[in-house]
């Protein structure tokens, strides 16, 4: 499984996963894949060419699910999306890192079980909520 931390989240999230995460996964930040600043529709469709396997994307960019073209690209790509709820933005970085590490085992489990194109909301308490279409 490949994990992409979107550019709207700290690079430190990727570093944390590299330290504590499963060695069989690939952990990437938008900046390390050189997709920072590229329109969402383009990088979403281009991820499969970067590395084989399932991709999960962790982001706070709700435009991906609201913009019809971006949503269509995401669903077509089959990537599994985890959207951190807005309240994550209101807490200091060290608390975000702690909460992210708390949420990670749930994200990893659901990422392995999820069907292509599934969507989850990640709450500050580390719990996930599957979003139904």
Structure description:
The chain has one domain (2-131). 32% of the residues are buried. It has five helices and six strands, in the order βαβαβααβαββ. The protein has a six-stranded mixed sheet with strand order 2-1-3-4-5-6, with helices on one face. The chain has helices at residues 11-20, 40-46, 63-66, 68-77, 93-113; strands spanning 2-5, 26-29, 55-59, 80-84, 119-122, 128-131. The chain is of the alpha/beta class and 133 residues long. The mean pLDDT is 91. It is globular. β5 (119-122) and β6 form a beta hairpin.
Average pLDDT, rounded to a whole number, is: 91
Radius of gyration using CA atoms only = 13 Å
> Roughly how many Å apart are the termini?
24 Å
Task: Note poorly predicted spans.
Answer: none
Please estimate the helix content. 25-40%
What's the β-strand tally? 6
The topology string of helices and strands comes to: EHEHEHHEHEE
Strand content: 15-25%
| Shape summary | globular
Strand line-up in the sheet with most strands: 2-1-3-4-5-6
Helical region count?
Answer: 5
* Largest β-sheet summary: 6 strands, mixed
